[in-house]
Amino acid sequence: PSGPPMNIKTTSRSTSSLSFLWHPPQKTKQNGVIISYTACVSRSQNGPCFQKFVTSEREWLVGNLNTSTKYYVRVLASTKVGHGPYSTSKGYFTNGPFVPDKPTNIIVTNLASRKAAISWLDPKNQGRYRLSRFWIKLNKENLLILNITTGKVNEYKIDYLIPHTTYEISVSAGNYLGFGEEIITSFLTSEEAPSGPPLKIKTTSRSASSLFFIWDPPGKTKQNGIIISYTACVSHSENGPCFQTFITSKREWLVGNFNELTKYYVRVLASTKAGHGNFSENKRFFTNGRAVEKPIAATLNTLTFSLENQSATFLYFYVVALELKYNMEPSSSDNYENKELVTYAEAKHSTDPKPYIAAVVTSSGVDGNMFILGDGSNTNDPTSRKLGSTTSDYFNGPLEPGTGYRMFQRIVINEK
Asked: Alpha-carbon distance 137 to 152, whole Å?
């Protein structure tokens, strides 16, 4: 034949087969009696035949094909003299979904504390039309934090992740019609050292020789992993060298062997298995003094006390008084920061009881360890005298008759 068969077309198709039929060559190009046809199916236009079929009929059922896949068919005719040319290849799809199946073999690689790389393989069934893109979604605690489409790639790098956090990532393959089913996996980023210090350091109890501290962990977003230990430090001055340190998995520390009526500074850092973070800011705390003896003398407006004998070297100390109104339970002196101590006048005009500084006593001003609360004397704060102040800072004003008072001493060892 000098011409090919004509009008190749499908009469039926399924997900795994195609049924073809065709017409013989034009009558003027048959050049004899057509005794057979050779049909060829290939995966590309004019590509090699992976199935051939010789028949005297003008039809062919091709099986064992892939779903949603395009195949090319061409046919030639033969007389007893020989065969003619192939027809032009024509492409046909088997039945199946229009969009690709889900990708396979999703893997998380190069996993670190703040980044990861994701790779996958193309789906075996890529749909009726060419696979051209992927849809990537990243979730953290059911919150969508990444939602992008890419071209036809097989990996993607993710940055700006949070240490020691579980993420869920999904990838779906698509063409211009849409996207198919997604493949999902999850991963956990590695830990880092904490990026924030422990919080809210405070004392829950104290004595003349010990302090009991507790604290909260760093903020949740700054822990960067599982906190496995805390390192606590106590020093004599702010940011000074630690004279006691303590490593614990708990958030508490009982420190002993302290001096009474003494100021100490505490700071704490947290650690994960990846390393330790920074120390917290120093917090200042005072130990208690020994219990104050009862007044050795009393008048309508004064109380005479024996001052605490200071064995340690100090610059000065405050004598602080608190009027006990309404049968109030006296609070520990530890509950008051220095900034909460007011003057006699401020305490008198306050509707709530406030501790006031009755006097400032320097190391050279202790006279027989006796102090009369309410004697009307005035004293200056040593820190204000350095600034050239000529006024009296503190007035040891008269006491209210028939009223209870709490008195304590607040020692200052140095100006730090």
From this structure: 16
Whole-angstrom Cα distance, residue 19 to residue 4? 19
Domain ranges (residues) in the chain? 9-94, 104-189, 199-287, 292-415
CATH class of 9-94: mainly beta
**Any idea of the CA torsion for 99, 101, 103, 104, to the nearest 10 degrees?**
-170
State the amino acid at position 124 in one-letter form. Answer: K
The top-level CATH class assigned to 104-189 is mainly beta
Strands of 143-150's sheet, edge to edge?
143-150, 133-140, 166-175, 178-188
- pLDDT tens, N- to C-terminus, the chain (416 residues): 999 999 999 988 888 899 999 999 999 999 999 999 999 999 999 999 999 999 999 999 999 998 878 899 999 999 999 999 999 999 988 877 778 889 999 999 889 999 999 999 999 887 777 899 999 999 999 899 999 999 999 999 999 999 999 999 999 999 888 888 899 999 999 999 999 999 999 987 777 788 889 999 999 999 999 999 999 999 999 999 999 999 999 999 998 888 877 889 999 999 999 999 999 999 988 887 665 667 888 899 999 888 765 555 567 788 899 998 766 666 666 667 778 889 999 999 998 889 999 998 876 655 557 889 999 999 887 765 444 444 568 999 999 998 888 888 877 665 55
Per CATH, the architecture of 199-287 is what? Answer: Sandwich (2.60)
In this chain, the answer to whether the domains covering 104-189 and 199-287 adopt an identical fold is yes
